[in-house]
Amino acid sequence: MSSNLMAPVEDGKFVETESQVSLKNKNKTGMQSGMDKEAFLQLLVAQMQYQDPLQPTSNTEYISQYAQFSQVEQIQNMAASTELSRASSLVGKEVWVKTTSSSGATNSIQGKVDYVVYENGKAYLAINESLYSLDDLDTVVDGTYLAAYNKAYEFTKDLNRLPVLAGVDLTDAENIDKLEKTYNEMNDYEKSFLSKDTVDRLKQYIEKLKEVRHAAGEGEDGDEEDKTEGPSEEGTTPEGSAPEGTTPEGTAPEDTGGSTQA
Fold first, then answer.
1. What gap in Å lies between CA 231 and CA 156, rounded to an integer?
2. Among 39, 94, 199, 240, which one has the highest count of C-beta atoms within 10 angstroms of its own C-beta?
3. Which positions ≥6 away from 98 have C-beta within 8 Å?
4. 102, 21 in Cβ contact below 8 A?
């Protein structure tokens, strides 16, 4: 737990991190509720030393007390073994842990469990290189679920950044095209995280962008439409000109015979 020996300093005072709070609360709980075999034997010996000599406790009663404690100890060992097994199964999983500071504020930490540390029969989860008590575990999330949830969250956040529908212009084309592409690349499971209202709004923005592009004389791909005419086909004459060998009126010139009268 050497990684938790350092603490940030604010205003000249040490500030406990969420990890340190978690470990501190765990150790405090263990000291308050735990009683090991050695402590029980010390109490048993003290009871024998200070018993009433006129009414001594029978050996049978001492044996019965010891047997009961042994049963409790076995149950505690089983619980500790189950805790260690449970912690080991969390390695590689996405989890949320909640810690409560000394001021009563609750903080949530989300991350992947990198490894598990066992100390004094207790398990500690390593998240982002900090240790947290297993007792502070709040939620375990499947990786596929978390990825789909985050994707839908970012998609909705980007959609909300767009201007109102009436204010859409060509400067918003790139963002709307990107959202449309992202939506089309989603699988059915990822789309299930989007509300119907979000999908309907996306469709409205797509249709609005088509109208804006049409009004600006652009195609759906964003390129301006070609408004120039192509070259005339070979063998045709420009409009308004007469064919070679004819007059503008469409008649051939008169043959003068190449001579003049004397």
1. 49
2. 94
3. 106, 107, 108, 109, 136, 138
4. yes
Query: What is the pTM assigned to this prediction?
Result: 0.52
Place of tokens 């994707």: 151
Query: Which H or E element spans position 92?
Result: none
**Does 46 or 4 have the greater pLDDT score?**
46
Q: How many whole angstroms separate alpha carbon 107 and alpha carbon 83?
A: 23
Residues 6+ apart with CB under 8 A from 9: 15
Structure tokens at 73: 């100890």
Burial, 38: exposed, middle or buried (Cβ in 10 Å; 0-12, 13-18, 19+)? exposed
Q: Could you report the per-residue pLDDT of 152-209, keeping only the tens digit for each?
A: 999 999 999 999 999 999 999 999 999 999 999 999 999 999 999 999 999 999 999 9
Residues whose CB falls within 8 Å of the CB of residue 260, separated by 6 or more in sequence, listed in order = none
What is residue 148's three-state secondary structure? Answer: helix
Round to whole Å and give the CA distance between 141 and 244: 85
Q: What distance in Å separates the CA atoms of residue 151 and residue 74, rounded to the nearest whole number?
A: 47
* Placement of tokens 């005072």 in the chain: 13
Statement: residue 226 has pLDDT above 80 = no
